[in-house]
Amino acid sequence: MPVTDKDILYEDNHLIAVLKRAGDIVQIDETGDEPLDEQVKKYLAKKYNKPNSAFLGVVHRLDRPVSGVILFAKTSKALERMNAVFKNREVKKTYWAIVRNKPAKPSGTLVHWLVKNPQKNVVTPHNIEVPGSQRSELSYRLLGELGGYYLIEVDPLTGRSHQIRVQLSTLGCPIVGDNKYGYPRGSRKGSICLHARRLQFIHPVKKEPVNIFAKLPVDGFWERFENF
């Protein structure tokens, strides 16, 4: 589906934030499916009548089965500065995840060293540093329960591949639909119940606080948790 005005969460002369649907890929991969960055380029080219396409820089990424807010840069200057913001961990990322198993503690901090197998696209957690591993840290808190499902808010300090998915799995709380990391079955929609809820940072050009918020997917399940 093409990107339309209703998918835009934030836009100015420097940045544009889009509501990513579960199943969209952010950048081109081996599937050959049209990536989200190309869809946003087409949206900008049409909106601003730029027949030669528009510049768009990928600031960060979300896994294909994950929904929520994703940010792009509209200029090379903004891209360079936002890359620094993310590298220096000057952005607060908040995710919501739905699990079936209640965590033993209602809140906590998880630290692991993650090793990715690029051939299998699977990440393995370790409790100590091992060769080729990356330190990964997040904090979480239980927001509530609904119909036997538990809603967890996650604030990752680092931004490792599959980090939230694999670290919640170490708690015995695999994300609903994520059969790659321990949930009994996958989703027929190719999605998992992990949603990038919010991005907060200081604008790299305007030097003003930016708070970008993404509503939950309307799929007959997620929206029941909107008022938590």
In short:
With 228 residues, the chain is an alpha+beta fold.
Structure, described:
- The chain has 228 residues and is α+β, with helices and mostly antiparallel strands.
- Helices cover 14% and strands 35% of the residues.
- The chain has helices at residues 36-47, 76-87, 163-170; strands at residues 8-11, 15-20, 57-58, 67-73, 91-99, 107-117, 122-126, 134-146, 149-156, 194-202, 209-213.
- The radius of gyration is 18 Å and the shape is globular.
- The mean pLDDT is 94.
- Tally of DSSP helical segments: 3
The termini sit apart by 29 Å
Q: Considering DSSP H and I runs of 4 or more, what fraction of the residues is helical?
A: 10-25%
Uncertain residue segments: none
- Our estimate of the beta-strand percent is 25-35%
Task: Give the overall shape, derived from the CA principal axes.
Answer: globular
Round the mean pLDDT to the nearest integer and report it.
94
Strand count, sense and barrel status of the largest sheet are: 11 strands, mixed
Please state the CA-atom Rg, rounded to the nearest Å. 18 Å
